[in-house]
Design a protein that fits this description.
Keywords: Chromosome. With 454 residues, this protein is an alpha/beta fold. The protein has 15 helices and 17 strands.
Length: 454
């Protein structure tokens, strides 16, 4: 195996790194034939499976063609500099090693971990900033304050091998859509005992095969489980799930916990919180920022509010499904924050689609527009993936267009109630409504592009 290689970790693209000796107290992962790799251009290290390593020189041109990012180019420059210096030392020493007397750093290593296709990061507890990865991640960087903060990184207690100690509480999960399916899969993978229910019962079959139990009704799941999560499409579905026939409320007893993960309005959250607690139950809202892919990868960002003790009881669950979580105080705050985030994302996606179509209308290359965009300050995995999918005509849903339009509508209403103008969101909302009229509801949010070409 060559010393300098391309190493691939989880869902992220290959990155140049060199095989190094791991710290003496760091155990090699069981059942994996792998090497300890330090990535160029960063201070990150990881155990990389042998089959995920490729020789640097043999695949250099291939990798450079598929990754044009500035940080990637800086990493490649670091490799070339390293190889040039290594060659010079080899010539000067006539082939003799020069490691004698070399000083080693006592600085704690940043170690990236992979469990199947999930990525877990272990940080030095003294570090306040989020881990700097050699890849662009589709979410904001986080700063965790240690005094008076409402932000908590749920992944801080994740073990070094990427495993999680699951809670001994019985977990229920209602709703196996784009987001819920990935969440349940990760809960099961990390050893939680999960009972599932879905309006379309056939969607439960795969999870039953993976070890989940089947609940016949929402009420039965809530009565059987200590903590019941739900993730459905909109406020009406969330209310029906709790208040409807054989709904969650019928299964709530004193001490039972209900966690609403759907993106809904604050008023719906307040109503559900009141009815759950009126039966002696405990309530937490925990909508998630992300997409189907991030849900599958266990990389969601969880926004929680309500009963703080429920939040703490959900710690291992949040570690399994997300990369970080925030506790935002009283119930309703997470709904407000989630709507604001999705308002920004929806408006941004509509603007990108408008830019792509304006480029085409003025005789400019859409691919060149994207290439320039991805070299500037707005470069991100989100922009690159959405635009490439648009140019390829691929609108397979990662986040439903109808749901982002619903979120825009709720955000605008929230702005009206706060007497705060939201003209950008209102304009974007009209574009999404046109896309829905063109039968794009069940496509990805990037299908808003089609509203501009019809």
């Amino acid at each position: 195996m060559a010393t300098v290689n391309w190493g691939k970790l989880g869902r992220y693209p290959p990155w140049p790194g060199k095989i190094v000796s791991p710290p003496k107290d760091l155990k090699k992962p069981r059942g994996k034939k792998c090497h300890f790799v330090k990535f160029f251009g960063t201070e990150d290290h990881a155990w990389i499976k042998v089959e995920q390593l490729k020789p640097y020189h043999a695949h250099k041109e291939e990798m450079i063609k598929i990754n044009k990012g500035k940080r990637f180019q800086q990493a490649v420059d670091s490799v070339e500099d390293f190889l040039k210096k290594a060659k010079g030392k080899e010539q000067n020493s006539d082939g003799k090693g020069d490691s004698k007397g070399k000083k080693t750093s006592n600085k704690p290593l940043k170690i990236l971990e992979e469990d199947d296709e999930d990525l877990s990061a272990l940080k030095d507890p003294s570090e306040k900033a989020s881990l700097s990865l050699p890849y662009e991640i589709n979410s904001v960087d986080l700063i965790v304050k240690d005094t008076g903060s409402t932000s908590i990184q749920a992944a801080d207690s994740t073990a070094i091998n990427g495993s999680i100690t699951p809670t001994d509480k019985r977990i229920g999960f209602l709703g196996l859509g784009l987001m819920g399916s990935g969440i349940v899969s990760n809960l099961l993978k990390m050893g939680h005992v999960v009972t599932v229910w879905n309006r379309t019962a056939e969607k439960c079959d795969l999870f039953i095969q993976e070890g989940a139990r089947l609940g016949r009704t929402p009420a039965e799941v809530a009565s059987m489980c200590d903590i019941t999560f739900s993730c459905v499409s909109d406020p009406k579905a969330a209310r029906d799930l709790v208040l409807g026939p054989s709904g969650v409320l019928q299964g709530i007893r004193p001490g039972k916990c209900y966690v609403e993960m759907s993106t809904v309005d604050p008023e719906t959250i307040t109503e559900l919180s009141q009815v759950i607690t009126s039966r002696g139950g405990r309530f937490l809202e925990a909508p998630v920022a992300g997409s189907q892919q991030l849900s599958n990868d266990g990389m969601l960002v969880i926004l929680a509010a309500g009963d703080r003790t429920v939040y703490e009881d959900c710690s291992s669950c949040f570690q399994a499904m997300g990369k970080t979580s925030f506790f935002l105080g009283e119930a309703g705050n997470a709904a407000r924050m989630m709507l604001i985030l999705n308002m920004v994302q929806g408006s941004f996606m509509a603007t990108i689609a408008e830019g792509l179509t304006l480029a085409q209308a003025t005789g400019q290359s859409q691919q060149t527009f994207l290439d320039i965009l991805c070299q500037g300050q707005m470069a991100s995995t989100f922009v690159d993936q959405k635009c490439q999918n648009i140019l390829q005509g691929n609108f397979k849903p990662d986040y439903y267009l109808k749901h982002i339009q619903k979120d825009l509508r709720l955000a605008i209403s929230m702005g009206d109630m706060a007497n705060h103008p939201t003209p950008m969101a209102a304009a974007a909302n009209e574009v999404y409504k046109r896309a829905k009229a063109l039968d794009q509801s069940d496509n990805d949010i990037s299908a808003v592009y089609r509203a501009y070409i019809h």
